[in-house]
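Sequence, please.
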C-alpha cells in the first residue's frame, strides 16, 4: 500500500476520533451544567479553605459575591479580589478603621492562624493583606480545578464507553475497512468538513446543544461514507472478542481529547497535501 493510502487511513481515523471526542465532551459538559458541578466544586473548595461548610455559605451570601450569580444557583467562578474583600469584611473589619484585627470571626483555629500569618506577612498594610488573601484563594482554586478535571475525566470515560457501544464504533473494524476499501478511504479522507474548535467549555446549555447539533450532522456524514458504524447487518460484529477490543481502543482514543486529534489531523493533512517525495533524478 502506498504512503498516500496510509495517510488517508490516518486522516480518516483522526477525523472520526475528533468527532467522537467532541460529541462526548459536549455531552459531558451538558451533564456538568445540568448538575451545577462547577458551582458545587467551587463551594466545596471554599469550605475546604475556610474549614467550614457554614462559613463557605456565609461568604457566598456576602453582597459582593451574591451579585455574581442568580438566586437559586451557585457561581461557577469568583474573582479572587472579590473573595478577598468579602473575607476581610467578615473576618477583619477592624482594619477599615486602622485597627489590628483579631480574626475572631474565623470559625476554626486553623483559619484564624492562616489569616494571622497573612496579616503578619503584610506588615500591617491592608492592601497587601487583601492581596495575600486573594493569593491564598487562588492557590486553593488551582487544587479545585484539579478536582473538577479528575471528575470530568472519569465521567468522560463512562460517556465514551456508552457512545462507543451504542454507535458500535469498532476501531479494528474501521481500520480494516479503510485499509481494504479504497473508495471508502478516499471518501472519508477527502471529504471531511470543518469541525467546531470547541464543543464544550461553556455553562450555556443552548451553546452546547448547538454544538451537539453540528456534531450530529458530522457523524451522519461519517455514517453515510460507508464506514462500519452502527448496528446494521453490515456493521454488526462478526467476532465479539474482536469487537470488544475495538471498542476499548475507541474509548482509549476518545479519552485523549479533541485537541489532541485536531492537532494530529492538521499534521497528517499537511503531510498528505504535500504528497510523496519525488524520486531523485540520476
Amino acid at each position: 500500500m502506498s504512503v498516500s493510502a496510509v495517510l488517508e487511513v490516518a486522516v480518516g481515523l483522526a477525523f472520526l476520533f475528533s468527532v467522537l471526542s467532541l460529541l462526548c465532551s459536549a455531552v459531558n459538559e451538558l451533564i456538568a451544567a445540568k448538575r451545577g458541578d462547577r458551582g458545587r466544586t467551587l463551594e466545596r473548595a471554599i469550605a475546604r479553605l475556610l474549614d467550614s461548610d457554614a462559613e463557605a455559605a456565609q461568604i457566598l451570601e456576602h453582597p459582593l459575591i451574591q451579585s455574581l450569580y442568580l438566586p437559586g444557583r451557585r457561581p461557577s467562578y469568583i474573582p479572587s479580589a472579590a473573595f478577598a474583600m468579602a473575607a476581610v469584611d467578615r473576618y477583619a473589619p477592624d482594619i477599615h478603621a486602622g485597627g489590628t484585627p483579631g480574626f475572631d470571626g474565623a470559625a476554626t483555629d486553623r483559619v484564624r492562624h492562616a489569616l494571622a500569618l497573612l496579616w503578619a506577612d503584610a506588615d500591617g498594610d491592608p492592601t497587601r493583606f487583601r492581596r495575600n488573601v486573594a493569593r491564598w484563594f487562588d492557590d486553593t482554586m488551582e487544587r479545585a480545578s484539579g478536582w473538577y478535571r479528575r471528575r470530568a475525566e472519569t465521567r468522560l470515560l463512562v460517556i465514551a464507553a456508552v457512545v462507543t457501544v451504542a454507535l458500535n464504533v469498532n476501531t479494528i473494524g474501521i481500520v480494516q475497512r479503510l485499509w481494504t476499501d479504497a473508495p471508502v478511504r478516499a471518501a472519508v479522507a477527502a471529504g471531511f468538513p470543518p469541525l467546531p474548535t470547541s464543543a464544550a467549555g461553556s455553562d450555556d446549555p443552548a451553546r452546547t446543544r448547538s454544538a451537539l447539533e453540528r456534531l450530529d450532522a458530522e457523524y451522519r456524514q461519517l455514517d453515510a461514507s460507508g464506514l462500519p458504524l452502527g448496528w446494521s447487518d453490515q456493521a454488526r460484529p462478526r467476532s465479539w472478542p474482536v469487537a470488544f477490543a475495538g471498542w476499548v481502543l475507541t474509548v482509549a482514543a476518545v479519552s485523549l481529547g479533541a485537541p489532541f486529534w485536531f492537532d494530529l489531523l492538521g499534521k497528517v493533512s499537511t503531510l498528505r497535501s504535500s504528497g510523496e517525495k519525488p524520486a531523485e533524478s540520476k
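The two ends are 25 Å apart (CA to CA).
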